Amino acid sequence: MSAEPRVVIVGAGPAGANAALALAAAGVRSIVIDDNPRAGGQIFRVGPNDAIGPVKPDPRGVRLRARLAERADMIEHRAGHEVIGATPERRLTVAPPDGPVVSLDADALVIATGAVEVSVPVPGWTLPGVFGLGGLQILLKQSALVPDRPVVLGGTGPLLYLVAAQMVKTGARLAAVVDAADWPSPRHLLGLAAMPKLLRQGIGHLLALKRAGVPIHRRAAIAAIDGADGVAAVRIARLRPDWSAESAPDATIACGIVGVGFGVRPNVELTGLIGCAHLYDPATGGWVVRRDEDLATSIPGVYAIGDGAAIGGVENALAEGTIVAASILRRLGRPTPAGLVDRATGARRRKTRRTRFRAAINGWSGLRDGIFTLAAFDTIVCRCEGVTRAAIESAAASGFDELRAAKLHSRAGMGLCQGRVCGDAAARIVAHAAGVAVEAAGMPRARLPLRPVAFSNVAAPKS
Amino acid sequence: MRHFSLRTLLTEAANAHQGWARQWRAPEPKPAYDAIIVGGGGHGLATAYYMAQEHGMRNIAVLEKGWIGGGNTGRNTTIIRSNYLYDESAAIYDHAVKLWEGLSQALNYNVMYSARGVLMLAHNQHDVQSFKRHVYANRLNGVDNEWLTPEQAKAFCPPLNISPDIRYPVLGGALQRRGGVARHDAVAWGYARGADALGVDIIQNCEVTGIVRGSDGAVTGVETTKGPIRTPRIGVVAAGHTSVIMAMAGVRMPLESFPLQALVSEPVKPVFPCVLMSNAVHAYISQSDKGELVIGAGTDQYVSYSQQGGLHITTHTLDAICELFPQFSRLRLLRNWGGIVDVTPDRSPIIGRTPVPGLFVNCGWGTGGFKATPGSGHVFAWTVAKGEPHPINAPFTLDRFRTGRLIDEAAAAAVAH
Prior knowledge:
The complex is a heterodimer. By secondary structure, chain A is an alpha/beta fold.
């Protein structure tokens, strides 16, 4: 054992990777654990080889991976490893791609687990052929799979238009885009202009859709998905200002693939398991990690950065990677290189602009609770355990009016994914039935292991 | 209270299950009660239920710092059995098993008690001798328990690996056919609903922060996070946190609290017909009605109030499970959690009076509390209501650690932990 402090970073997306690079530049080694085969997170996701695939890799991602490879002397990147547990004492349980789980103690732990999609159950959403927008993107970017049948994309937010533009670009037949939000108002556009490059990109996506002649339905949602063995068509409903359906679905669009995404929220499974304090902030994704100026959580030595702490986008994630590196150097009593201090200060300063941009995105396309009333009473909400909306509502009506109590009573969220998919919807349904705000229903919580792991990989290895 | 029946179920099914009402109230505390039970787990709720049902005490409250059934009641592996060595233990656990048998009907709440048989494996000569001793002792007490050869054990539990060359070879087993499992949450909910219908106030999110005593030393009330409440009688049923509550009254308890872990696999079709225990290696396994294999581990070696145990304990248990059931080794671990168990030096519970007048305690169930829930609540209700122990819990005094009249299940092989 060396006396060198051990820094462990969970997540090799822009936030985690940038933190590791900044630490390496200051002479501090780190271990970066990530469940993907290659670094870059969802935003810079690529296939096994940068040269193939229908989507050109993001040059920032290419650069990030090259820099990580250059600093392999200081950064141990454990690709394909899953962190399945963690304690407040910063002891991680890690499942390698194959083989027994291991324990790993960290002197400083950085959680950069990124975002997860918010899923909205509607009748038919469990049919084969229905994907999250992020899921479609993974297939496109990592596995080079372009849909071979007509696609309808629904939901809201920037990701909807990004994925739509990627579909058009890669030659998929995009039958329609269904956006729950209206056009951004002039006020929102002014806010979006805080990040001119991103605004330009967004307009570019819109123009690409226009050129391809893709119809865009606004203030509307995919209210039902029809089909017997797979998706055959979607039905569109107009939305009220709270995003509940104005009337029964009218327009029907034939398609074979559906992608739906209502924005993203921080993946707070790990911070929740450790017991970090969280707070409810709809502007940055709902349940977010409580952090101080140094991006430290309420648990000593545990930091949370990037979209895994609070939704802020890729620029913010990169910046927080720099800031957290400076915080960790201070904690370890190491000198902070002057360049890093400057960059951290600059990153903090630019935060105001990012915040204005996020507020505009949120004002334009932020999730509204009415969307969760699209599920019919017999629509399955928890797909792992087959729990319907009615079952969750009747649990809440029977007095199990907090999420964890409703979970025990109805079993929603007790399956393989531990509520990662249905947690948002289940919390809203419980809160609505109990007549309380969604934050009063409590934060969805997962238990060890965060991903299922084979018994034989937990049992002691045989000699 | 709405009576649950096939008729109500069909009515509600026709109504898309929209008509179910709250199963118990959510009252604010009154200024005073005739008695207060501290702890809203299965034991505490059962105590309140029987106090109201059998002793007519309706002006009582159960105070729970979290949510009911959220402690060890909702964290155990639901094993029910009564084949303990000593007369005193056999009496109280068998009292519980008899109540389990009619509990769903008594509470009008399906606690899913399933007497599928509990098989305790012997892995060495000491196990064999000691389990046979248990079988004979149990029979003298009228408690069913029988010895099975390895082949008979395999016939009773077909997934079991009885090959002689494994690290923990199966040399036989003691089977209690009346043993089994129940749905742990439903036990808390059933007692809560029953107690509430009899007028008991169940107050959640209400932590006891102090015990108030009069000039004569007797209790006069409690301080809570929801304000002070007056009462002449307090029953403390707080499992792992009992020592903390009792310290508020100046009573030091002979208890140590350890984390104890359990886990479930992903759900699979019915593959496991019974409950199987392997005390030598700390592996306890059954299958839930949902299909998950429910597996219990041993306690951590060190005291702690953490509801997470060490990974090496789980590793040790799954090691044994994979050897006894090689076919389960590719099953995936779905959830793993811990509870805090309060353990006495002789591994038997403490149920009775304390040196403080008006203060009663029910604790020290170690790792075996769930199975005792109805019996424990039943005799403790008697104790709090009458101010003196029921004959069944009379030997389980706090005083025994001073007098030396221990009920030493710790020294017996199939220990009560």
